[in-house]
Structure formats: structure tokens, C-alpha cells
Amino acid sequence: MLLSIPGLPQENGPLQPAPAAAPRAVALIVPRSPGGEPGGEQQAAFRKVLTAALGIELDRAGLAARIPERLAELAAAPLDRLLEAAADADFLFLERYTSTEQTIRLEVEVWRVKGGERIASASASRKIDLRLDEVVGPVVEALLPRMRPHLDEAVRERQRLTAALAPPEALQAQTELQPGAGPVAGRPEPLPAGQERPDRAPPAGQAPERRLEIGAGGGTFFPMAELDPLFRFGYLAELYLERRSRLGSAVLAYGIYTGYAGLLPAQSDTASYFGSLIPVGLSLRLGTSDRSRLGMHARFQAGAAMNASPQGKVEQRLTRVLPQAKAGAGLSLALTPRLGLSLDFLYELLLYMYMQNGTLVVEPIMGFNVPALFFYIRW
């Protein structure tokens, strides 16, 4: 069986070193036959998905991933034969999986081609579904720290090889360049001390992370049944700023939110005092890995809504601050690596307080933000 993955170069003859400007360590990926499992279309599909996903993760981590054409021949070949086939690569990744009706377990071994040493291994499991490829992410995250010394050594070797193969004219031009004459062709202008070039490639083994997210959107508020006589409907517009960080295979985001909201009264004499609310608070979101375009998350918010509505006859009786809390779940869709949409389904609780016969009375306003649609950008 031949495997052709768009976006990942196939091995067709000797592997060539990366361009001189940014040499990368080369990894050859060989999927091994699942031990004790019969072949078939399902196994071939699993192997294709997992091999492609591993290649993509390694490319994101800064390695040049290669997949051989002769997969059927190499799947059951002995280790010596595989190391020989990977002679032009720096690392050999052996990928194998086992599956049941509900779950799949992926195991990956990493061998240093130079010296034939096994340097790392990792495994992970998940249920079989449309996000099957996400089993690869935790495996790569576990492998990279163990590979680090060998990875740095391989990159240095590639750099030396690139320098040795550079045309003599290019080396002479660099040598003869006088101070102040301008940069070498093909090299960017140097930046002032302490500044980094924002679009430069990340170091090998590290994928670029976008840690900040800002989102804006709005939605509707439907009060629970017992509040229908007071509030028919509500609306909200919200803006949030969050910082994102990895938490194992998940993503944790925390930050602040604010916006504008209002409750449309059913009885103007009773409920018109909540037409203009300005919420401010803290937000917390725990979601799935952002390696795939479609993700899921749980969102929690807590703060207070400042009541900016005219108070009229209830002045000095109705408090201006309403404690607020929200909780729920949502889906996110990445349109590009930086831009996307989020659709949330939230339960909301507001507490309004008023004085009655010299006593502070607390009443809840409960309902659902269904749906709340946000547009976000990350950087």
C-alpha cells in the first residue's frame, strides 16, 4: 500500500538537507503493522490518519517530517533494515497502534539514526471518533523533552553540512562584505538589541503559541419560566480578553470580561429598572487542544453587573450592583490559525437586592444565554 499525504513530502531518493537559511532535523516516519490484528480497510484508514497527524505535529515542532513510499515493505521490516532506509535522516519514528471497538492506543519509538540508539518512547490512548488524530499531540509533547539533546545535536550537524555545501562564491561574498556595506543578500536587516523578529521560525522542537485572545460578540437572554411575568427577553454584548496556556493536552484560558446587557420588561412599572446593565468580571475557560479546527470548551464567569438604568421611585431602595455568575459549554471553530468563532450555551444568575421594611431582600434573576456568538482573534 502506498501512502500519499498532501503537505508532507514523500521519500523519493536520498533525503536532502534543508535550505541553508534554516536547517532542520529530519525525521523518517514508519508505521508498523498492528501486532496480532488482521489487516483491512479500517486498519489502513487508522494508519493513514495517525501517520499524517504525526507528520504534521513534527513539522509544527520544527522537524522536517518524511514518510517513505514503500510502507508495505517497511511495515514489518527488521530494525536494521529500517535504520538503513533512514540513513539520510536524523531520527527514525516507529509508530504502531492497537485498538478495541471503542478506543485506540498509539505508541511511538524514536531512534537516533546515527548510532542506532533508541532515545525516547511515549504512548497515549483515546476513544475512536472524528477527533482520532488528537491522540498524536500528547505523544509528541512527551517525546520532545527527551529528544532535546539529540535534537540540538542533529540541528548543529545539519548547519555544518549546509555550510560545507554552500557555493564558494557565497562564502567569498560574505567574507568580503565590509562593515556598513549592508546585509548579506537573503538575510534580514539586524534588529536593535533586545528586540525579536516577530515572524521568525520557532526553535526546533517548539511550536509557536498564541497566548492572548480577544473576543467580541453577543447573544440573547431567556428568563426562566417563573420570571416570565417580569422579563420577557434580554440581550447582551460582551468583550473579553484572556491569556491562554497549555494544561496537558487541554488549553486553559483566564482573563476579564465586560459589556452591555439589558432586560426587556413585561410590566413596565415593575421591571423597567434593569434596562441598562454593565457587567464586569473574571472569566475562566477550559477547552480541548486547538490542533484541530473544531474544539469544545467549558466556560465560567463571575463578577457583578452595574445597574445604569433610571431608578425613579425605587431610588435609594434598589442596589446598583448585581452579583453575576455564568457557567456553560460551547464549541469553537478556527477559521484560520488566528481567527475563529465561538458558540456558547450559558446559564446565568443575577442577584438583585432591595430594601423592604428596613430589611435587605435578595432575589435571583435566572435564565439562559442561548446562544451567545463570539468572534475571536489570537496573537
Question: Helical amount among residues, as a percent range?
Answer: 10-25%
Contiguous low-pLDDT stretches (5 residues minimum) are 1-9, 174-188, 196-207
For the biggest sheet, the summary is: 8 strands, antiparallel, barrel
Count, helices? 6
Rg (CA only): 29 Å
Order of helices and strands: EEHEHHEEEHHEEEHEEEEE
- Structural class based on helices, strands and sheet pairing: alpha+beta
Number of DSSP-assigned strands: 14
Any idea what the shape is? elongated
Which strand order does the major sheet show? 7-8-9-10-11-12-13-14
**Average residue-wise pLDDT:** 80
N→C terminal distance: 41 Å
Strand composition percent: 35-45%
Oligomer: single chain
Could you write a compact summary of the structure shown?
With 379 residues, the chain is an alpha+beta fold. The chain is built from six helices and 14 strands.
Indicate the topology.
Layout (H helix, E strand, L loop, with lengths): L9 E2 L14 E6 L9 H20 L3 E5 L2 H4 L4 H7 L5 E9 L3 E10 L4 E11 L8 H30 L2 H9 L35 E12 L7 E17 L2 E16 L2 H4 L5 E11 L6 E14 L13 E14 L4 E18 L2 E20 L1
Parallel strand pairs: 1-3, 2-3, 2-4
Antiparallel strand pairs: 4-5, 5-6, 7-8, 7-14, 8-9, 9-10, 10-11, 11-12, 12-13, 13-14
